[in-house]
Amino acid sequence: MNIYDSVTADDWPVFDETYYTGVAAQQENAAQELFTVRATTVGGATVAYTLRAADAAYDGYFSVEGATGVVSTVAGRPLDYAAAQWHHLVVTASAAGLSTDAVATVTVTRDASPVFAPPPSPLMVAASHPAGVVVYRAHATSHTGAPLLYSRVDPSSDEFAVDRDTGDVRTTVAPPLSLGAQTLTVLATEQGVGGLSARQTINIEVYDVAGNAPIFTTPAYSAEVPERAPPGYSVCVVKATAAAGAEVAYTIAADSPSRDDFAVDAASGVVTTTRMLDAPALLQLVIMATNLDVSAPTTTAVVGVVVMETATSGEAPVFAPVPDPVRVHVTWQQDATFYTVYATGSGKLQYVIDGGSTLYSLHGDTGELSTRRALQPTDVGTNYVTISATDADGLTADMTMSVEIYSGSLAYPEYTEPYYTAGVREGLPPGEHVVSVEASVPAESVEYDFTEASLSFHIDPNSGDIVTLVELSYDVQSLHYLTVRASVTGQPSLYTDVLVSVFVTSYQPPVFSPVAPLVRVADDVTAQTLVYTVYATHGGAPIRYSLRADAAMFAVDPTRGDVSTRVAPPLLIGDYVITVRAEDSLNSALYADVDLNVEVYNAAIVVEYPRFDQTIYDATVEEGGAAPQPVVTVRAATPGGDSVMYELNNEDAGYDGYFDMVENTGEITTLRTLDYNDMPLHTLTVTASNEVEPDLQDVTVVLVHVTEMVVPQFPCSQCRAEVWEDADVDSEFYTLTVTNANSFPNLVYAIEDDDSGGMFSLSNVAGEAVFSVAKPLQTGDYSLTVSATDGAASSLTSLSVRVNPANRPNFAAPSYNASILEVAPAGSYVADVWAVSPLGNLVTYRINKGNENDEQFEINADSGIVSLRKPLDREIYPWFYLNIVALDSAGSQVTFYVADINDNAPVFPEYNYTGFIWEGMSHGEQVLIVRAVWLLDREKRSADLAEENGFFPTPPTSPDPNSPLDREIQDEFSLEIVAEDNAGSGGHVTITYLVITIGDINDNAPVFDVAMETSYIISEADGVGTVVAKVVASDADAPLPSPNAVVRYYMLYGAEDQFQVDRITGDVYVSGALDRAAKPSYELLIAAYDCGAYQQLNDTITLTVDLTDVNNHAPYFAEATHAVSIVEGVAGVFVTKVTAVDLDDGLNLPLLYSIQDDVTADFVIDPADGTITTKRALRMSEQLAYNFSVYATDDTALWDMASMDVLVLLEESNLETPTFAADTDSVTLLEKLAVDTLVYVAWAEDGDVRR
């Protein structure tokens, strides 16, 4: 139904462009000129321009000069990239009372670098850390969500490294680390849009742990927490010790990622939850330990907490709350994931989307909701999607969510969480805080309320804090669903869901499975050796295990029940009774104890006890299987290899005879068919005996879990369908699908029983049962039994089919058309509809659909006359499609048609038309709806061409009329449109023109010039700013003002902060001091990205830069003093050879050696190779040692010479013959001299020293 203006166009303003674009920088206070619009009239009338934003929230941010058409941003109203990346404007050109609109898009560019999370100052690192320990994570966030690349810049030492992908800072050397202050600068670079980077300098203080800081028992702890566990749930215990038994206090680090989710007891180190946690999740907590006796640095440990999913078998899955609506922008392309649905249930869930969805697809395993095709402007609006989740038990839950496809940038409030969960214990007094919701809009205040009044909860309208109004009861209601609305005056509201769980404490203690009568442990086992595993079950909260007696040598895992040794060998030989307690984690009064008898024996004395290879065996058997079914094989062995015999006992009363065991192999099988509903878990004990010494035994436990058989699940046990008696043979009338079809890829449907005599048939189509008419129908009710099977599992359902008599009313015409002036008053006639019952029954009428817009039409239920209920406004609703139902009929989609005499030519409302469509669209996509109308007639028929949607010419350069449009081939099409009301004589024809502009999408990546030089040689002396090369890439997309062909250049890898590339010009220049000795060559990976608004394409090129040497290094000796010994008395003897090092290369490398002037009479040095020899014969009698300096310098003498002290020690040589003082001598002796009387001293001299 067309509603048209009563004024006929004469001389409309016509814009020179059909679509305008501009680019504005964000956060710019000054006015920015964006583009200029121009419009003219045939008569040359003066044109005035006005402007408005498509999103009313941005009125006042843009302006247009009324006379010139220059469009600019408004000074003092900066744009925010984070709030909206583009803005749609409507510019109106007016002349002589007539006006025309043009559309423009302004893209907001950003210039915001990634932002680092603040580091601790200083970062305390223990000197005792081994290599590879993560001491910190440098984490940055990109404003665009682009992935980041981390690198190390200017470290003060090589003791730390940065992980390229995660930003983890690790130690790289063996302990101890260098004590004192160090700095590390981390660079985070975007790998996508913009490629901006940011730096963070980390001040590291390496401290000595000896006697000062506490030491944790382990640097990292791990724990598991069940989802929705109440606040106060015990997670783990951290433990640190300090020297001399000093007291240690525990706190959570201020920058810990999950600080608000946990608490730690300062004295005991017990970590507990502060709120209920959602699964699945992996959380991280940083705990600090401080020595209270000394002013010492703290030590940190990391706690990793896994939040585990829990589900109760037999309960249907539960969907997590979903935002209403989920919003998707119209520019999203095919296969773009925009939301993930999540449900909890038994086992792995499978998700299925309503088969009627043509816009969206759903990943069956992950719940990711994606676009099935590229979205179009015609998709804008809200639609609904139904999603099913089926768990491992075959139970199904459905959820319907609304999806809004939008084209503007609405100022919706943004919640901090997509939905909120909380837990409250029952019985607490009113006023208990439950949870706080938070939403924000820039520069606006948000008010909160519930969409439906709650008798149990209250929300503060300003803070979003939710508290209880009454004492909650688990028995009355265990789950509360609340919907919170966040509102801003003059803006759309946004909703979120809050799920509040009421917890009740179980009144039943845990129950232990049987334990072995004796557990034997050798005295030589190491600490943390698994001894035994106890197992307890409990219907309520999770169980915590602890030891109550004989805990000195043993420990128990608090969550798994693993009993292990806790001391180094040897263990004390003897018999011990270990009491293990299983405790309700929510109520310590509910517990059970079990005694474990442990014998620690001397490993040196071999006793032929059998020993099972497992303390507990877990086995799984599917219900319904025919006996015998294999369960598990247990194995035990003795040290000497004696044969072992096995005996089976069923600990479950009344279930003897359900299992059997082969006594010499340990193989266990079923004797009966098991039933999950009868007994889901069987507990067996097996005794292994030494066949030689039967008194030597060991016992183990076998837990047999019976799994429920998964069968196809029909959505209904009594399904119903209807079909008309006159339905054609082979016509389809009903489709049936099992809800867990994803679990049965080879599913086959069949009709097992049919009382209709074969009137219906079934076809298997893509996993669905499609029912069709097999032969002419007869009225009545029929029953079919339908099966679904995959060969192993099967199920049945009943389908009731009603064949309705073919007596439904028939409309006189399949469709009707009508038109009415927008100035027509209420009560004006619109059209008549008429339907006849074949049986002559009374027919009544009603409007079924299409009247939702303010209910502007009404129909007389008896006569079928449609009339106007309220006046119309063509500028708001130019046409309506009403669906009229004749009661007792199936309803027929109709538009109104009223006969007319052909006395008026069709009139196009516009003088000419402009259309716009993005390139890449396929044949058949809608461009524009063009309609011609007739004036002043109560009845008319529409022009044949008026309803043509998406009329495309075939691009002249494309041989395939169905090929997508390509702006790079042809960017504009001009069409002539003819409206004719009657092809015969007396008909009328009106012509208008349509110019279709093909908009550019970013479908071409930048391409580097293939002829570009990629190898360059520069001097290491080239300073910062020296241009090395120029890279150039071109993009085939549309030029400015479109950003798609704007190319920006980024340095990706290899520069090591020594080179950079100018983002705009592509100039590659030196950005840091070069040193050929440190790195002689660089491989630079450079990317060219375009600036497309929604996707950024790129190309890369690698440049090689080699450095030539300059004389910028002084020579140096490896040692300050060199000592050598030579024999005295020989001239020209080799003393030593000295060698200096120069990091320069080529002509700058040769060195000249010289010697201290005052020893040149004694020594000589070869100036080329540094060989030192004696110039004369040196004598120890003259001097025992010589100490002098040698020098090295390069040829250029641009650097100070290097020097080294040489110490030469002389060694004695035997060159002289001894001589007596006289050649002859005589002595006179007296007789009778006593023995040993000195009678003479002989004296000789030798020229050699000390001889």
Task: Describe the structure in your own words.
The chain is an all-beta fold and 1251 residues long. The model is unreliable at 1-9, 889-903 and 933-959 (pLDDT under 50). It has a four-stranded mixed beta sheet, with no helix packed on it. The protein has a four-stranded mixed beta sheet with strand order 11-18-17-14, with no helix packed on it. β8 and β9 (98-109) form a beta hairpin. It contains no helices and 101 strands.
The best one-word shape is: flat
Number of helices: 0
Alpha-beta content class: mainly beta
Strand order of the largest sheet: 2-9-8-5
* Mean pLDDT over the residues: 78
* Main sheet makeup: 4 strands, mixed
Contiguous runs where pLDDT drops below 50 for at least 5 residues: 1-9, 889-903, 933-959
Helix content: under 10%
Into which percentage range does the β-strand content fall? 35-45%
User: How far apart, in Å, are the first and last alpha carbons?
Assistant: 135 Å
The count of strands amounts to 101
Summarize the structure.
By secondary structure, this protein is mostly beta strands. The chain is built from no helices and 101 strands.
